[in-house]
Amino acid sequence: MQLSQRITGITGGGSDGWDVFYKARRMIAEGENVIELTIGEHDIRTDPVILAAMDRSARGGHTGYAMVPGTQALRESVAARIQDRTGVPTTFENILITPGGQAALFAAHAATCNTGDRALYIDPYYATYPGTIRGIGAEPVVVRTHASDAFQPRAEDIAAEASKGAASLLINSPNNPTGTVYSAETLEGIAEVCREHDLWLISDEVYDTQVWEGEHISPRSLPNMADRTLVVGSMSKSHAMTGSRVGWICGPKEVISHLINLATHTTYGVPGFIQDAAAFAIDQGPDLEDGVAAPFRRRREIAREILADQNTVGLIPAQGAMYLMLDVRATGLSGEAFANSLLDTHKIATMPGESFGTAAHGHVRVAMTVDDERFAKALKTLVDHAQTLAK
Ligand code: PMP
């Protein structure tokens, strides 16, 4: 039996740069003591007060079908949070609750791209981006950034691809994997290209609470952008609720009304007790969010100290998110070869820059997701290892 090209083509074939990750997982399964600095998951769990709200809701009977667009309470809490943070008037009608940011990324592309349309995204990129675009039948088209620009995209590079025809542009700030926070200048340039080439802008803002330097600007707040921007948000990173699978799309009412039809025919909504817990969590305000972000803020400082007195390993200014992008080109190795050698020699697992496209070759991404002491030890070992190789 033949499977559809849509489904067999999602991954695009070829090596996906995740070999080091799977090797680390195998070593752990075989009982080895590997320090895992690979994926973006907090070392803390969901706060007990949020779990208590989830428990109250489920025991109170909210275990049946919930409203497909999201509960009124959660849609309103998300809208209020967005309006507070960006100043853009936002109501519940601008919000669709989704099972996580990933489902929102899929829905946003489904809403904006026809089959075969070119959909732009920025390299380095979060691993699922090209597959998400292929999954809705569009063609992923990459726009490269450069380590020498600290991975800020250049408007002229986006315009060059947009001028060949494109339906959408997907951006992500604070950025996974680079930790870059897009500057006002970068975002204004991007907004200009979107207006000029009539592009939908899909803005993945799942790391919006993890900003260590500069400020997070949502491009939906820029002039004439609210009616062409779809913002992707999530409780995963801001509230350490990765496993609860709850996120949202914020966009024009008309787009949301169509996306409610998509939700009806795919997910049929998000569990009510999860949504009640999410609304409770958002209503606790920024203190809870700051507490969840605090360990990464602290570890970034630890990393800056460790990396200060040497010049073998370069740190791309980590302005946000839970990752560091380290330039290891002085070792003469690719990111993948370096990550393999660090894993084999010292049992420290990192992600090769090559896992995220071509722009971050010769780099490794370090997730700041183990306790401070192990993190500091692992990073010192990484630097020593790079210095030994560079000799
Ligand atoms: N966007 C980015 C940039 C991410 O790093 C992730 C998760 N690692 C997501 C979206 C999706 O997150 P979730 O589905 O858990 O909300």
UniProtKB/TrEMBL annotation:
BP term (GO), one: amino acid metabolic process
Catalytic activity: L-aspartate + 2-oxoglutarate = oxaloacetate + L-glutamate
EC numbers, comma separated: 2.6.1.-
UniProt-recorded Gene Ontology molecular function terms: L-aspartate:2-oxoglutarate aminotransferase activity; pyridoxal phosphate binding
Pfam families, alphabetized: Aminotran_1_2
Catalytic EC class: transferase
Obligatory cofactor(s): pyridoxal 5'-phosphate
Keywords, sorted A to Z: Aminotransferase, Pyridoxal phosphate, Pyruvate, Transferase
Family, per entry: Belongs to the class-I pyridoxal-phosphate-dependent aminotransferase family.
Protein name per its UniProtKB record: Aminotransferase
Lineage, broadest ranks: Bacteria, Pseudomonadati, Pseudomonadota, Alphaproteobacteria, Rhodobacterales
